[in-house]
Amino acid sequence: AAKRDGRGNFRFFSPAMNAATHEHLMLETKMWAALERGGFEVHLQAQVSLETGRVIGAEALLRWHDPELGSIEPSRFIPIAEESGLILPLGDWVLARAMALLAEWQHEGLGGLRLAVNLSARQFGGGALLSRLDQLLAQHQIDPSRLELEITETAAMRDPENTRALLRQLRARGFKLAIDDFGTGYSSLAYLKLFAIDRIKIDRGFVKDIEHDPNDAAIVGATIGLAHSLGLSVVAEGVETQAQWGFLRDKRSDEAQGYLFGRPMPAREFGEFVRAQAQPVPGP
Ligand code: C2E
Ligand code: MG
Ligand code: MG
Ligand code: MG
Fold first, then answer.
1. In this structure, how many other beta carbons lie within 10 angstroms of the beta carbon of residue 87?
2. Which of 102, 105, 190, 248 could form a disulfide with 110 if both were Cys (CB 3.0 to 4.6 A apart)?
3. What is the dihedral of CA 75, 76, 78, 82, to 10 degrees?
4. Among the atoms of ligand 1, which is closest to the Cα of residue 87?
């Protein structure tokens, strides 16, 4: 069905759009309830040193299980949380959970591990981030260098001046900073020298066909070289095969993350997982 609006343009109200809007609102409502009732969980995915195969840390990944709908993918609920503003309390919950986990690790003899947390553009642009992190640091008595904050290129470039200032302040506090999904945004190279970051995470899209696609292989090799010459370390995302691991190790990527080394898992399993790895994963 189409209607004329005041300027003579047609506006469309399709059944599909109504259904999408309806679903959107339904999920948003359910997310608010889940946040209040403890329906969210943080899972941890190992990051390993490519040289030794040992676990050096983890990335915190949000999980949502709804009693009626079952498990809902982050790719479905994060965009809705971003749009509705729910990502602010939700992201805050993830940060608090991450700091609590770091404190637990310290007491359990896993204090050398680092934990990476994804930040949305909204959290990053809001102005409340720094004071909130300070508060959590003091509450949990955490070494800030154990926490890594991941932001995407797209989020960083939304307001480059603000990003630049905030990254500087975060780095001055001692936090580690990583650019997530590197290579999927725009102006990937110019800002590397502008922003005070520690690491880049090469997007899974480049790693997937690394053995068969010479362009991907060239891009990954050159990116690692560039990062190293700028003094940054590199994590490769989405490593699933021994051959990918071998390639990345030969190219001197520092670390890797992917199903080959471990799926995201509940936090209580992760400590066991790390201890079971006293023997490193056998190399390619
Ligand atoms: P990301 O930060 O790039 O996280 C990596 C994603 O790749 C995760 O998907 C992870 O499960 C998946 N992955 C890891 N290894 C492999 C592999 O070997 N093969 C394949 N096929 N996939 C792999 P997940 O957990 O579904 O999260 C998707 C995205 O949702 C994340 O991408 C991140 O952008 C966002 N996200 C997750 N948790 C949070 C959060 O707490 N806050 C915010 N703002 N975003 C989050
Ligand atoms: Mg990430
Ligand atoms: Mg990523
Ligand atoms: Mg991603």
1. 22
2. 105
3. 120
4. 44
Residue 92 has pLDDT above 80, yes or no: yes
pLDDT above 80 for 13: no
Spacing, Cα 60 to ligand 3 middle (Å) = 12
pLDDT digits (tens, 9 = 90+) for 270-283: 999 999 886 555 55
71 lines ligand 1 (CB under 6 A): no
> What CA–CA distance (Å, rounded) separates 211 from 48?
20
How far apart CA 107 and CA 103 sit, in angstroms, is: 7
The strand pairing partners of 70, in sequence order, are 66
CB of residue 62 inside a 6 A radius of ligand 1: yes
Rounded CA separation 233/49 (Å)? 11
Cα separation, 113 vs 183, in Å, equals 27
The pick from 35, 41, 45, 61 for probing ligand 1's pocket by mutation, whose C-beta has the most ligand atoms within 8 angstroms, reads 61
What is the 49 CA–ligand 2 centroid distance (Å)? 17
CB of 120 shorter than 6 A to ligand 1: yes
Residue scoring higher pLDDT (218 or 8): 218
Residue 184 CA to ligand 4 centre (angstroms): 9
Residue 42: pLDDT above 80? yes
Nearest ligand (C-alpha, residue 201):
3
Mean pLDDT to the nearest integer, 192-208: 94
Q: Is the CB of 262 under 6 A from ligand 1?
A: no
Count the helices and strands in the chain (H runs, E runs): 11, 12
Task: Compute the distance from residue 21 Cα to the ligand 2 centre, in Å.
Answer: 27
Which pLDDT score is estimated for 191? 79
Q: What's the pLDDT tens digit per position in 98-112?
A: 999 999 999 999 999
Task: For this complex, say whether ipTM is above 0.85.
Answer: yes
